[in-house]
């Protein structure tokens, strides 16, 4: 092993970013890299929008809007107001400060920079020292199969407020996509000492990352501890549509069902599954899926909660 | 002739828009169409920006910022501020309200609409009843040949504040571009009863329009009065680099030189050339170029000035 031992955290948006923030507070910046889902990314009003990357950037730079649960603190909305007056598309709310991020990104991408490089540049300018690695520099787009037909992810998630009933998901472009070269370099560096799967949506945040060609197998081959945190506690998702999706897919809405999903698609990949104390009664059933089960309070409200869960996860990952 | 007789005004940005506003105040909306230069248009930060079209839209909707001389009245600048904090490109100042226009346009273009159709949509939403016709739905880009090399127009005009010395201009893409189908339809309709060339920059505003393949010849073939207004008065341009360009191109800086430029490139096209009263002494020399010369006060400060010049021009065009 050369250089600093690193924890690689796999994250979608809000829920994952909370644990990432906890981890960032417990580890030196060079000891953490966050591998972020980009299958929610989309081109909107000419701009390249990367919701999960931005949630990480805004959360880790301490600028996220905690009351809204997305976007930036102290945001203003003049552009949206003017766009609304023009009868433009305003279902995806882009704040004035947030827009600057998208303009900056879109300009750099148009100049030929990779998303990885652009993200590094944004992180640097926002004072985020933790490495934020987009899963791929290639375009991958989540398609939601639903009773209203196939929907682009943000149309399902934001425009239709997750109301359509889902029957499955596919990731357009994933067969042709490669993990980003920065990610592959990290995996080849021998530096990754543990992997954390944050409490993100298994279907639309974690799956697109792990289903990049060869990626989960490559991570598994590192033979380092892989610890996943359930995004479902007491039969509910803290935020987002994970619970609703499980139900619509005909599965039980439980932490166990999440682990079953992971063990079905990525057999043997996860070593330890962290469930909430409210789900302690499920521990034996989850263990029957062939993982160690660790029970703790997984609800992250305060920064203290996030740090405590991060410490717990790190201890289970041998840190 | 079928339908309403129309005046077709050819315009670039600010100077042209002033006379267009005067014309719009003197004519019924359906009796005026403004043919606008699009060779200044560029893609910036992912957005399609059409400075001359927007100047017309903002001026004719009464929303233009008169103190700045560009952009919108009551504009706010939050996005630029945030972009500046990111170290982004802020040399082209995009106000928050102005950005909404560019986002709206870029989204519609991305959805496959033509620039003509998008412009019609914007005009409608801004309450502009006068037809605003982009010269082409194809991309044409002015390249400024200068002592600093070849510069994209906005780099010369805004970023470099017209400081480089020019040696000529070319219009990339013009050979492959067609006049917009709406423009061609109007020219074929038999409705155009007069043509006004607004006091816009001859080199970078009027030339790209008239040099679209076949366009000026097609307009000339209508055999309707063509009246041009000099953008140079008393050896100066009211605004913009027309005077500086004339000097750098080795020409006299005068209304006469402008008319000479027009008669060299578009022989026989212009019937009447309107010069400022301060240039009355040039009248005979200008007339020697083979046009009728009309002398009046061409400086447009107030709306009354614009209306008065519009009436003068219309009377010379047989209205």
Automatic annotation (TrEMBL), chains A, B:
InterPro entries: CofD, CofD-like_dom_sf, FbiA/CofD. Its EC number is 2.7.8.28. It holds the Pfam family CofD. It comes from the Bacteria. Gene3D superfamilies: CofD-like domain, CofD-like domains. GO terms for molecular function: LPPG:FO 2-phospho-L-lactate transferase activity; magnesium ion binding. Keywords: Magnesium, Transferase. HAMAP family: CofD (MF_01257). This is 2-phospho-L-lactate transferase. It comes from Sediminihaliea albiluteola.
């Amino acid at each position: 092993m050369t250089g600093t031992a690193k924890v690689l955290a796999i994250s979608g948006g809000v829920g994952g970013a909370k644990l990432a923030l906890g981890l960032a507070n417990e580890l030196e910046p060079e000891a953490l890299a966050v591998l972020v889902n980009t299958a929610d990314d989309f081109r909107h009003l000419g701009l390249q929008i990367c919701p999960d990357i931005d949630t990480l950037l805004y959360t880790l730079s301490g600028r996220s809007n905690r009351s809204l649960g997305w976007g930036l603190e102290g945001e203003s909305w003049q552009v949206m107001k003017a766009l609304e007056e023009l009868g433009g598309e305003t279902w995806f709310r882009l704040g004035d400060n947030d827009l600057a991020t998208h303009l900056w990104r879109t300009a750099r991408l148009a100049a030929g920079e990779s998303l990885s490089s652009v993200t590094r540049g944004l992180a640097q300018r926002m004072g985020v020292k933790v490495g934020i690695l987009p899963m791929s520099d290639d375009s991958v787009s989540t398609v939601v199969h639903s009773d209203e037909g196939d929907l682009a992810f943000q149309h399902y998630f934001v425009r239709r407020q997750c109301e359509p009933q889902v029957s499955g998901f596919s990731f357009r472009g994933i067969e042709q996509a490669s993990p980003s070269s920065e990610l592959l370099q990290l995996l080849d560096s021998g530096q990754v000492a543990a992997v954390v799967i944050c409490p993100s949506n298994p279907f639309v945040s974690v799956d697109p990352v792990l289903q990049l060609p060869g990626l989960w197998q490559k991570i598994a081959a590192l033979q380092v501890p892989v610890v996943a945190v359930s995004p479902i506690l007491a039969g509910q998702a803290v935020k987002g549509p994970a619970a609703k999706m499980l139900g619509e897919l005909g599965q039980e809405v439980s932490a166990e069902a999440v682990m079953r999903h992971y063990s079905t698609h990525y057999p043997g990949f996860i070593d330890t599954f962290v469930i909430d104390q409210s789900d302690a009664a499920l521990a034996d059933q989850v263990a029957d899926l062939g993982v160690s089960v660790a029970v703790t309070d997984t609800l992250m409200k305060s920064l203290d909660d996030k740090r405590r869960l991060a410490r717990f996860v790190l201890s289970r990952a041998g840190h």
